[in-house]
Design brief:
single chain; Vanillyl-alcohol Oxidase, Chain A, domain 3; alpha+beta; 20 strands; 8-stranded antiparallel sheet; about 425 residues; 14 helices; Uridine Diphospho-n-acetylenolpyruvylglucosamine Reductase, domain 3; binds flavin-adenine dinucleotide
Length: about 425
Amino acid sequence: MLPMTATWQNWARTERSRPVLEVAPRNLDQVVLAVQRALETGHTVKAIGASHSFTAIGATDGVRLDMSRLRGLVDVDLERGRVTLWAGTHLWELPAILNPLGLALENMGDIDRQTVSGATSTGTHGTGLGFGGLSTRIVGATLVTGTGDVLTVSETEHPELLPAVALGLGALGILVTVTVQCVPRYLLHAVEEPMPFAAVLDSYEERNREADHFEFYWFPHTSGARTKTNTRLPLDAGTAPLGAVSKYIDEEVVNNAMLGAVVGFQRWVPQATPGINRAIESISSRRDYTDESHRVYITRRRVHFREMEYSLPLSAVPAALRELRAMIDRRGFRISFPIEVRAAAADPLMLSTAHGRESGYIAVHRYWRDPDREYFREAEAILAAHEGRPHWGKLHTRTADQLREVYPRFDDFLAVRDRLDPDRAFANPYLDRVLGA
Ligand SMILES: Cc1cc2nc3c(=O)[nH]c(=O)nc-3n(C[C@H](O)[C@H](O)[C@H](O)COP(=O)(O)OP(=O)(O)OC[C@H]3O[C@@H](n4cnc5c(N)ncnc54)[C@H](O)[C@@H]3O)c2cc1C
């Protein structure tokens, strides 16, 4: 009889599970041993990263592999700008590893709390029509498959598996190391400014094509958007960072403390939401600064929320947003959190939300204590109808049959799964739903 372990809960508090055993391997051999023991005892096995997925993609009642002892740099190929990292390395640990090597990640999402393996396994992305998500920068990996074997995948070893393994949903094996293609360190010049929502929608594609990285937030019930346009600059262009006080006021006071208080208030007085959103939008001001890339990409998110995000063909984004606005008005929802809109380049990864098409991303959020089911259900109906593909780590209700219709290489991925995990050692109910049993 195995000892029961503590209950696991994800960041958003949407999921919990109780593994039968938790193991924290220190090296490749210990990962192999853990998978083999799980197979022998008839348990499933799942690695967990920083538990920042909103879905139950990482939940397990079998053996949980805590990857926190497998962190840091394994190897570097300076000539090609590549680093091999232990899979449990957090994104926030990367500047200390990459800066001395003169390297940086090509693009990043909003936060850096995730692990490199969790982020790549779910297709974590930022914005920028010329750039893909982290998974598109994975050029190699060592994993332990569902038969307990060690497999190395790269451009020269089993290259046909890379488009599946780089974004594998945790369904193909336990990643032990990943090799990331980096770029030379660079700066970002950021311009944040309010603009009319209607004007942003009308020029959405052009804005994305003109900028290196364009995104915007729209507060429901208002007619204004907050845009953020980042331009890449060489490291010697010189920084002009936000002052410490201004950064503190904006990120800690406005984005976290004030937002927390406001959404908490709106929970009890929902009819105040439109007025409060309009007030927040009206005080939104222009900011212009230049800093090292990771400092510009990353913000702190301490107010817990729930999120659904869909990727759409880029050209469908304005129409989908107009439908979302009409739906919110029609249903009388009171939405305190903004809708976030980003973009990414087309890529060839089998289960990438940007597979084969330039993509726009629309993310809807709710405060974690607010009821989200009806709003998300209505939003999902709109987003899915535009050939939408849900983010694998964010809330959605799609099933394997529905997903097969929007992923041309869905069955190729399943064939890789059959090859690497024939007995479904890495299965859980979420994967049963989205991939089939
Ligand atoms: C506040 C917040 C902000 C976010 N911002 C963004 C954003 O800007 N862009 C975006 O795209 N997403 C974003 N996300 C979503 C997030 O990036 C993904 O859900 C990501 O997977 C979280 O990484 P993690 O390390 O927490 O992975 P976990 O949630 O711990 O795990 C995710 C999956 O990866 C698997 N996994 C983890 N480690 C391994 C391993 N070693 N081998 C095999 N499989 C493994 C797990 O089993 C699970 O299936 C955000 C989430 C939050 C909570």
